[in-house]
């Protein structure tokens, strides 16, 4: 690494009673990553000062919340099922409160496109015709230092109307749409560090910065005023929350940040992804804690499935899920979760946004495209019929398919907040009813190994969203694949064909996959296999596969 920050200057103070001299340090951010072209336009002294303030005020609370997650996961693993909280019942039972709702440019969210923030994908998203673009610095972005800072540069330029891109082949890309989507940026989750930036606290202790605070802070500091002038605002998707206390932390960050830049309270709008099992039991509380800043909730289906597996991985055979392809949106626990989300949102004046079907078209294969259109249309028809106000797609060609299903229900209305769903009654037991009645097959196990290896290999090369076998894979879907393998091994599960799923059995599949994939100079398959073995075959279960992979392979060497 190439440190660029100045050394810390100690502050000397005398205690009032004794006059003894004590030394403390001024909290400071140090930039350790190499500085590329135009990085100084993002890592300005004023922006770094803002990051320092965010970490000084909020990073200790972030760490406390992560400790809470570990305790909660331990409790569930030891037989204490989650439930709706008794201590917050007064919030759920109070009919009077409502959330802030849509900000300018978020009134109609019927189709949102998701994707990473490199220049080409940014331009494609802005030209897509979607109502909203989820500018993803999280699961669709591999958090290399280059991707983190250059993603910020793409957004900086796009918001100012100055973004262009020329591919290595000489193809030129530019924003040409008369009306571009409203940008909603997704920072990394609380759990991910940014190892190329060091925060040094008042005691002189240095630690990796928070990926969440870095992503949020740089985007907000540089773009909030310009976004407001453009007729929109600083909008964020908040990922992987697990509690209302975590939501309160984000709300405090938003309030401080608005005050810091002297913009009106409530200008920020957040959409929270309900993509963890604990958060499903606290939807109303999350809305309440963020009520001055929240526009809606999103049903983050893939991370939600991963969260179910992660929390119940050691609780016995009845919590073992079948092949990934069998865990659809119509199985009991997924129906309960999405129905509750729509009802909760509309009760409080919040938008309910549907999730992303993984099927994607192929411009080279009409049959694959026809199947993708059919499956995505069915998925979006279900969401619109259930009362969702909008949905996600991962490919521009799917926008007309999704829009048609929502247009059929919404017509000229921007949303269906008036649909209250009083008939929906979801008990705690419904949210953990994971019985599907389908087997684990040998093909399902092999698919998980193959997808996880190929995705991790691409992630290590800096690609966060990858088309694999005509499905869009990101970190969340890879998490399902590796966590299922871990659970099947540790629950002594067998395939429908009679093969016991052991470490040796999986090692054999790893060998097969590595022998079949196309190997190229500079590929990362050997590293990917190392990561997969650690997160799927190890005795311990890493909370996220991206944590060890990032620490070992995406952190630049000294």
Give the helices and strands, then pairings:
Elements: E1 10-14, E2 21-25, E3 28-31, H1 39-42, H2 45-77, H3 89-93, E4 111-115, H4 119-126, E5 132-136, H5 145-159, E6 164-166, E7 172-174, E8 182-186, E9 193-200, E10 206-210, H6 211-229, E11 235-238, H7 244-260, E12 269-274, H8 277-280, H9 283-289, E13 294-299, H10 301-312, H11 332-347, E14 351-356, H12 366-386, E15 390-393, H13 399-410, H14 428-431, H15 442-460, E16 466-468, E17 471-473, H16 475-490, H17 503-516, H18 525-537, H19 546-554
Parallel strand pairs: 4-5, 4-15, 5-8, 11-12, 12-13, 13-14, 14-15
Antiparallel strand pairs: 1-2, 3-9, 6-7, 9-10, 16-17
Helix pairs in contact: 2-6, 2-7, 5-6, 7-9, 10-16, 12-13, 15-16, 15-17, 15-18, 16-18, 17-18
Helical region count? 19
Structural class: alpha/beta
Gap from first CA to last CA: 4 Å
What spatial order of strands do you see in the largest sheet?
8-5-4-15-14-13-12-11
Q: Judging from the principal axes of the Cα atoms, what is the shape?
A: globular
Runs with pLDDT <50, length 5+? 1-22
The main β sheet shows up as: 8 strands, parallel
* Radius of gyration, CA atoms, in whole angstroms: 23 Å
Mean pLDDT: 95
Give the strand tally: 17
Residues in β-strands, percent:
5-15%
What fraction, in percent, of the residue positions are helical? 40-55%
């Amino acid at each position: 690494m190439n440190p660029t920050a100045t050394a810390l200057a100690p502050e000397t103070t005398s205690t009032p009673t004794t006059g003894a001299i004590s030394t403390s340090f001024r909290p400071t951010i140090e930039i350790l990553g190499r500085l590329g072209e135009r990085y100084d336009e993002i890592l300005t002294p004023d922006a770094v000062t803002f990051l320092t303030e965010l970490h000084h005020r909020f990073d200790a609370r972030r760490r406390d919340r992560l400790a809470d997650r570990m305790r909660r996961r331990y409790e569930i693993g030891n037989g204490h099922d989650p439930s709706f909280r008794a201590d917050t019942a007064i919030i759920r039972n109070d009919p009077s409160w409502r959330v802030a709702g849509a900000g300018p440019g978020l009134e109609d969210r019927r189709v949102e496109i998701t994707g990473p923030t490199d220049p080409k994908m940014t331009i494609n998203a802005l030209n897509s015709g979607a109502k909203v673009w989820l500018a993803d610095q999280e699961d669709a972005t591999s958090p290399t230092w280059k991707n983190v800072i250059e993603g910020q540069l793409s957004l900086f330029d796009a918001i100012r109307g100055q973004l262009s891109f020329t591919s290595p082949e000489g193809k030129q890309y530019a924003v040409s749409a008369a009306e571009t989507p409203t940008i909603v940026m997704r920072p990394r989750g609380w759990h991910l560090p940014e190892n190329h930036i060091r925060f040094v606290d008042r005691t002189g202790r240095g630690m990796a910065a928070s990926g969440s605070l870095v992503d949020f802070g740089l985007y907000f500091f540089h773009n909030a005023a310009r976004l407001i002038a453009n007729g929109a605002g600083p909008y964020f998707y908040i990922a992987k929350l697990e509690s209302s206390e975590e939501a309160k932390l984000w709300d405090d960050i938003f309030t401080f940040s608005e005050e810091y830049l002297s913009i009106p309270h409530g200008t920020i709008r957040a959409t929270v992804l309900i993509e963890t099992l604990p958060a499903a039991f606290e939807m109303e509380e999350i809305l309440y804690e963020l009520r001055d800043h929240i526009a809606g909730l999103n049903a983050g289906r893939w991370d939600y499935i991963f969260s179910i597996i992660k929390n119940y991985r050691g609780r016995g055979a009845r919590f073992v899920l079948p092949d990934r392809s069998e865990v659809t949106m119509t199985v009991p626990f997924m129906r309960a979760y999405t129905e509750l989300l729509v009802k909760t949102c509309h009760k409080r004046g919040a938008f309910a946004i549907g999730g992303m079907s993984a099927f994607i078209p192929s411009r080279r294969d009409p049959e694959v495209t026809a199947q993708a259109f059919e499956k995505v249309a069915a998925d979006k028809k279900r969401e619109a019929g259930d009362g969702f106000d909008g949905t996600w797609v991962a490919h521009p060609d799917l926008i007309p398919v999704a829009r048609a299903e929502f247009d059929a229900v919404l017509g000229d209305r921007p949303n269906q907040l008036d649909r209250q769903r009083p008939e929906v009654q979801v008990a705690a037991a419904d949210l953990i009813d994971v019985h599907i009645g389908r087997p684990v097959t040998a093909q399902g196990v092999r698919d998980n190994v193959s997808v996880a290896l190929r995705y991790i290999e691409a992630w290590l090369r800096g690609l966060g969203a990858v088309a694999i076998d005509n499905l869009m894979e990101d970190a969340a879907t890879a998490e399902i694949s590796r966590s299922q393998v871990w659970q099947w091994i540790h629950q002594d599960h067998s395939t429908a064909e009679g093969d016991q799923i052991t470490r040796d059995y999986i090692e054999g599949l790893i060998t097969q996959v590595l022998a079949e994939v196309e190997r190229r100079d500079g590929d990362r398959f050997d590293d990917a296999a190392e990561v997969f073995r650690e997160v799927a075959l190890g005795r311990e279960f890493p909370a996220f596969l991206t944590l060890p992979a990032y620490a070992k392979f995406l952190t630049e060497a000294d």
